[in-house]
Amino acid sequence: MTATGPATVPVTAALALGDDALVLSHRLGEWAGHAPVLEEEVALANIALDLLGQARVLLSMAGDEDELAYLREERAFRNLQLVEQPNGDFAHTIARQLYFSTYQQLLYAELAAGGGPFAPLAAKAVKEVTYHRDHAEQWTLRLGDGTETSHERMRDACAALWKFTGEMFQPVEGLDADWTGLDQRWQESVEDVLGRATLPLPEGPRTGAWSAGTGRQGLHTESFGRMLAEMQHLHRSHPGASW
User: Is the pTM of this model over 0.85?
Assistant: First the structure.
């Protein structure tokens, strides 16, 4: 039976979507003060804030948003392993954003059209995510079809993150979606962008390594523990404090 919270919201699904948005928001926030140009620092901060807003709504469907964000242990998080990957160089951040925002845009469009408890959030969020994807697409084109160095870095980034993309289309309890259809449309969209950016479609499996494809079950990559400790440090250091 699917665990449910207020208004029969599927908790498993709310946590999965909420954790995705929360973790990626934090990763993008790490660029503050380090982005290549000021305009890009503002853009990444805005995307991070959009995702944080989504995370707050989704986590509040499952319980107390602050407790869920700051007091859960690593194994209790249900985010995709893709979103927890370190920023790396700018190309890695853009590849991660292209992969995830394309998935998120397709999923939210389907959820918005299908009704159900996530439809209102999805209908609003899909507009934000459309911008996120456009931003990632434009940078992919600039880097892929830019200098020899930028092309090489973008190619390597897309290849390095490819193994984490299959997990996005594993069914999530409580989410009524056409996962096979979403996967096919995602591949077509990403392949189109990479082709226009003069980048090859990465080779190799999109899942398979022991560390890939298990974030939904609470198994995460090594970097996630360090990120989580940083994200939760202030709250855990001052329990019960109000600001």
Answer: yes
Instruction: Report pLDDT for 61.
Output: 97
CB-based contacts of 179, cutoff 8 Å, min separation 6 = 169, 170, 171
Tokens, residue 178: 């056409």
> Which residues 6+ apart lie within 8 Å of 190 measured at CB?
98, 99, 102, 201
Rounded percentage of the chain residues whose pLDDT exceeds 70: 94
Q: What is the average pLDDT value for the chain, to the nearest integer?
A: 92
Average pLDDT of span 219-227: 93
1 token code pair: 């039976």
Which three-class secondary structure state does DSSP give residue 216? helix
For residue 43, report the phi and psi dihedrals to the nearest 5 degrees: -60, -45
Bridge partners (DSSP) listed for residue 4: 10
For residue 224, give Cα distances in angstroms to 77, 84, 162: 10, 6, 18
DSSP string, 173-211: TT----HHHHHHHHHHHHHHHHHHTT-PPPPS-SS-STT
Contact between residue 157 and residue 165 where contact means Cβ atoms under 8 Å apart? no
Task: Give the model's pLDDT for residue 3.
Answer: 44
